[in-house]
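Notebook p. 47: complex prediction with calcium ion.
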Amino acid sequence: MNNVNSNPNGTLRRAIPGAGAKARFKEEMLENGSFEEWNAGQPAAWEAVKGAGAAWREAGVARTPEARSGESAVLLAPGEEDKWIGLTQKIDPEKMMVDRTLRFSAMVKAPRAEQVHVIVSFVRGGKRYSPKESYKGSGDWEEVLWLFEVPPEADPSSFRFEILRAPGSPGQVVVDDASATFVHVQLF
Ligand SMILES: [Ca+2]
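Predicted complex, structure tokens below:
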């Protein structure tokens, strides 16, 4: 066990984040979470995917002016195939921290509960985990908020943030204002 007082340099290694680490707590981990930037008809910084199980492929998503904020949001519409469809973004390993609480949130409008899943995907001990939080389903704009405890053994280079529309029922899903920041925990 590390005792911070035994460090010969007298520096506190783990118990107190340095000034740089403190600044990172407010840093936004996601790019283009506002969905205001689009390139060639697709939201910048995000990968649009569709599929099920182990079979996923590139997909197209639509821009909608029915935004929660700004001028655009993402529309996830059921396609001809009844598959999962949504967005995924790899998190910069340089920004990622383990053994901390990550606050994920997104504004979602969907026709029913469980229609949208927010997923944190990461590797721990060589195995990929994909825990999720779901839209509760009011039919109107609703915040999907998730305080995720990042396991200390997780691989910082393995993290992805995903927003997926579930198959199995009709109706369009709109997503806007996705955000991920670390929660600052006061240690002393
Ligand atoms: Ca927006």
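Notes: DSSP finds one helix and 14 strands in the chain. The first strand starts at residue 38 and ends at 39.
Next step: compare against the earlier run before touching the bench.
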